[in-house]
């Protein structure tokens, strides 16, 4: 990609951004545009761009750039934008700690380095859940990968993970990998999904599974991995309404590889070190409408806050975090939020968790179960409806976006709003 190495590492930056994915790069650009003079992005990988670099399929950027790009193209553009605006991007460098306005970095080039910072943006992305996170019993042979690792091997290293592959989980990464492997001539024996509904975007179910005749087994899970040196089969079983496997109806699926695609978890090491307040559902930091965490001057955006379905929304959120961090560094603070959003019926979470009635916000939420013809409703805790919007359909895999304008809350004077998505 681009040689983005800064020639000098300064002792002080207005804003330090941890993570050089689309969230970090977008936040850095916005911080510069908000008036921060020196902005540093650190990323632990040899190149900035984040996970997008291994996502070589198209489908990125329709909202943000108005055209369909591949992951690397999207990453290239956001990196270029940041560099063109004078952002320093230090790769092969790790944010280890943050205390009293000093960031401790471990850098291949600079060793252990301390830089002072006026504000910080956490944009470290997410990590994949593994076999041990969901405790699949059985042997421990070679051939068990997370879907993202397999994606990296195939797309960046040109190595196939196996020849006959079963996939556990129907999230977008698993679906994209089913298609990718089929295109490489690998036999994909099936995608097995615990829930009664698929967990990826509708467009991915069609273009990754239906178009390649790959079977999707809903309400089914892997209950055993078998093989001495290499996987030779997995056992799968249907699950009952409590998601418990019905072992009497289990069957064997011959395969040499199992890809596990069972969700992402925000990369939370730094958030925990900083003792940030975390949301038990998103597992990322609780944030205000300025994307500020529970610690003054520490902002966050992207998958480290909550898992996004589209990178375009990551960029939108990054702009808010970066603008706020840049403003903070030069002494500008917006008025504090005055309303707390409470996830109610069929809503798993809302981000940000608080808003202000004086500014416009985009609130992201996820539903717990699919519904057709539903209503998104904001109401007071005692049941007075403040705002309603009709939705054609909702599924847990697709984030719902709500533009919250001051006019919608003109007659609301409380400090908590319940958010629910119910059948019409
Ligand atoms: C395997 C995988 C496949 C995906 N496929 C798609 C897809 O096909 N389409 C889609 O729209 N979205 C996809 N996503 C989601 C999409 O990538 C995200 O929406 C987006 O990339 C998130 O951006 P981010 O900047 O928050 O995180 P990331 O892109 O993950 O970037 C985070 C960066 O932070 C760095 N980092 C972490 N900790 C530190 C630290 N302490 N110090 C320094 N650097 C650090 C990491 O190296 C990484 O470069 C995928 C995600 C994954 C994990």
How would you sum up this structure, described in words?
By secondary structure, this protein is an alpha/beta fold. It is built from eight helices and 27 strands. The strands form seven sheets. Strands 1, 2, 5, 6, 7, 8 and 19 form a seven-stranded mixed β-sheet that branches. A five-stranded parallel β-sheet has the order 10-17-11-12-13. It starts with 11 loop residues before the first strand and ends with a strand. Bound molecules: flavin-adenine dinucleotide.
Low-pLDDT segments? none
The amount of helix comes to: 10-25%
Kindly name the structural category.
Answer: alpha/beta
Average pLDDT for all residues: 95
SS element count, helices = 8
Number-wise, the strands total 27
Estimate the global geometry from the Cα principal axes.
globular
Computed over alpha carbons, the radius of gyration is 22 Å
Bound molecules: flavin-adenine dinucleotide
Multimerization state: single chain
First-to-last CA distance: 50 Å
Can you summarize the main beta sheet?
A: 7 strands, mixed
Strand content: 25-35%
Q: Main attributes?
A:
424 residues, alpha/beta, five-stranded parallel sheet, 8 helices, binds flavin-adenine dinucleotide
List the helices and strands and how they pair.
Layout lengths: L11 E7 L3 H12 L5 E4 L15 E3 L8 E2 H14 L3 E3 L2 E7 L2 E6 L3 E12 L3 E3 L2 H4 L9 E3 H11 L6 E5 L3 H12 L3 E6 L9 H8 L6 E2 L2 E7 L6 E6 L12 E4 L2 E4 L3 E3 L2 H5 L24 E3 L10 H19 L9 E5 L3 E5 L2 E2 L5 E7 L3 E9 L5 E10 L5 E5 L11 E8 L1
Parallel strand pairs: 1-2, 1-8, 2-5, 8-19, 10-17, 11-12, 11-17, 12-13, 20-27
Antiparallel strand pairs: 3-4, 6-7, 7-8, 9-18, 14-15, 15-16, 20-22, 21-23, 23-26, 24-25, 24-27
The structure holds flavin-adenine dinucleotide (FAD).
The site of flavin-adenine dinucleotide (FAD) has 37 residues, from α1, β6, α4, α5 and α8.
């Amino acid at each position: 990609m681009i040689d983005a190495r800064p020639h000098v590492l300064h002792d002080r930056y207005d804003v330090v951004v941890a993570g050089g994915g689309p969230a970090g790069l977008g936040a850095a650009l916005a911080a510069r545009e908000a008036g921060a003079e020196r902005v540093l992005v650190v990323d632990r990988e040899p190149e900035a761009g984040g996970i997008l670099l291994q996502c070589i399929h198209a489908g990125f950027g329709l909202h943000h750039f108005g055209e369909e790009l591949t992951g690397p193209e999207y990453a290239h553009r956001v990196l270029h934008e940041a560099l063109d605006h004078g952002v320093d991007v230090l790769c092969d460098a790790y944010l280890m700690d943050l205390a009293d306005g000093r960031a401790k970095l471990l850098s291949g080039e600079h060793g252990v380095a301390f830089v002072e910072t006026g504000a910080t943006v956490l944009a470290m992305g997410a990590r994949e859940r593994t076999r041990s996170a969901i405790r699949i019993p059985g042997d421990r042979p070679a051939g068990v990968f997370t879907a993202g690792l397999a994606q990296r091997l195939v797309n960046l290293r040109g190595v196939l993970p196996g020849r006959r592959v079963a996939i556990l989980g129907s999230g977008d990464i698993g679906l994209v990998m089913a298609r990718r492997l089929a295109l490489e001539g690998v036999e994909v024996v099936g995608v097995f999904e615990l829930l009664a509904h698929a967990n990826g975007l509708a467009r991915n179910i069609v273009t990754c599974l239906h178009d390649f005749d790959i079977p999707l087994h809903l309400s089914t899970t892997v209950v055993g991995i078998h093989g001495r040196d290499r996987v030779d089969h997995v056992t799968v079983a249907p699950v009952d309404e409590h998601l418990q496997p019905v072992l009497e109806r289990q069957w064997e699926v011959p395969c040499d590889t199992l890809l596990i695609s069972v969700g992402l978890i925000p990369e939370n090491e730094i958030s925990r070190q900083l003792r940030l307040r975390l949301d038990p559902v998103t597992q990322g930091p609780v944030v205000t409408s300025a994307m500020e965490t529970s610690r003054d001057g520490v902002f966050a955006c992207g998958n480290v806050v909550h898992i996004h379905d589209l990178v375009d929304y990551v960029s939108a959120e990054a702009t808010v975090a970066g603008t706020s961090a840049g403003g903070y560094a030069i002494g500008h603070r917006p008025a504090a939020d005055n309303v707390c959003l409470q996830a109610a019926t069929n809503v798993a979470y809302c981000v940000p968790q608080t808003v202000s009635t004086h500014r416009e916000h985009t609130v992201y939420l996820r539903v717990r179960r699919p519904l057709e013809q539903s209503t998104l409703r904001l109401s007071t805790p005692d049941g007075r409806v403040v705002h309603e919007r009709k939705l054609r359909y909702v599924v847990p895999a697709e984030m719902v976006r709500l533009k919250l304008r001051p006019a919608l809350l003109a007659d609301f004077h409380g400090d908590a709003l319940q958010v629910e998505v119910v059948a019409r």
